[in-house]
């Protein structure tokens, strides 16, 4: 596929000597939803700000839709919409004037029908004549989204878009994101709600301490780095773990009624069959088996802890 964003050797070091980003190489495919995960201070917002032309990189090159973001800044920026973490609008202006101004700012011809449709999709149409200062926090967040989409960008950055917003807005936002992706818009998001990335993203990138640790297709990531736990529900409680079982691999519950075995889903030999054979040889009966797959959040936490 032809990537819509190409990042080569991008790095950022501030005058104080702090290196916010180590050299990063990353390609983002056209039409995908890419989730960038990392703890606070990992470099997510710095990387997004560089791509959007808000912060200058210390080195490297970025192209957006084939345009160099430094040499062809104006044309490249027209391709990009950004929903920032913080409110960045004139709070005394009305909703309608804000989105109309934003569209004109990027050199787009007036299109009131498009802006009306956009505001209706975000449940803002009945607030169009209200000053932004009179809106609730959730409504202000909706205005930021409308502002970012006013010039019909082909690339949309969402920096913690659902932080501190209500459940209804989160639901509406993700429904809109799915529609945008169907229309060919490329979505790059950062989020602390990792279950959202697990639900929405095609690929996952994990960044920590300015270093891009990995980039992987979501299902492959969960398959390769995920773990499963097998719980064996015993017929009768055990006072202690049988000697035949390795305590490093098998854990006995406090009440002695369950055995839990952790295994890597990517391994060809999971060890489940030998475990059940050992139980049979020890005369330990069981009534049921259940498995649980590790979540993306558990994988993310383990990756960040390893790096720390």
UniProtKB/TrEMBL annotation:
Gene Ontology MF terms in the entry: ATP binding; ATP hydrolysis activity
Keywords from the named record: ATP-binding, Nucleotide-binding, Transport
Signal peptide, first to last residue: none
Segments forming domain ABC transporter: 5-234
Gene3D superfamilies (UniProt xref): P-loop containing nucleotide triphosphate hydrolases (3.40.50.300)
InterPro entries assigned to the protein according to its UniProt record, in alphabetical order: AAA+_ATPase, ABC_transporter-like_ATP-bd, ABC_transporter-like_CS, ABC_transporter_ATP-binding, P-loop_NTPase
Domain of life of the source: Bacteria
PROSITE patterns in the cross-refs: ABC_TRANSPORTER_1, ABC_TRANSPORTER_2
Identification of the protein by name: ABC transporter ATP-binding protein
Species of the source: Gilvimarinus xylanilyticus
């Amino acid at each position: 596929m032809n990537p819509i964003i190409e990042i080569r050797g991008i790095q950022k070091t501030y005058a104080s000597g702090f290196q916010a980003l180590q050299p990063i190489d990353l390609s983002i495919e056209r039409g995908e939803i890419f989730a960038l995960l990392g703890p606070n201070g990992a470099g997510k917002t710095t990387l997004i700000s560089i791509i959007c032309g808000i912060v200058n990189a210390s080195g490297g090159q970025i192209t957006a839709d084939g345009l160099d973001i430094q040499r062809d800044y104006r044309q490249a920026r027209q391709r990009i919409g950004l929903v920032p973490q913080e409110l960045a609008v004139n709070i005394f202006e009305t909703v309608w004037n804000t989105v109309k101004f934003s569209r004109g700012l990027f050199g787009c011809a007036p299109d009131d029908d498009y802006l009306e449709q956009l505001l209706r999709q975000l449940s803002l149409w009945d607030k169009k004549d209200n000053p932004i200062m009179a809106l609730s926090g959730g409504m202000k967040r909706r205005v930021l989204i409308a502002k970012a989409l006013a010039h019909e960008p082909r690339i949309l950055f969402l920096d913690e878009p659902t932080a501190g917003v209500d459940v209804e807005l989160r639901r509406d936002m993700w429904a809109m994101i799915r529609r945008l992706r169907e229309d060919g818009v490329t979505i790059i998001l950062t989020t602390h709600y990792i279950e959202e990335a697990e639900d929405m993203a095609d690929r996952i990138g994990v960044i920590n301490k300015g270093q891009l640790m990995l980039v992987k297709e979501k299902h492959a990531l969960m398959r390769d780095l995920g773990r499963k736990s097998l719980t064996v529900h015993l017929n009768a409680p055990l006072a202690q773990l049988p000697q035949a079982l390795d305590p490093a691999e098998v854990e006995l519950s406090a009440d002695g009624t369950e055995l839990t075995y952790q295994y890597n889903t990517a391994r060809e030999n999971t060890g489940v069959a030998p475990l059940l054979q050992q139980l049979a040889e020890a005369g330990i009966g069981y009534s049921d088996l259940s498995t649980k797959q590790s979540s993306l959040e558990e994988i993310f936490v383990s990756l960040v802890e390893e790096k720390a």
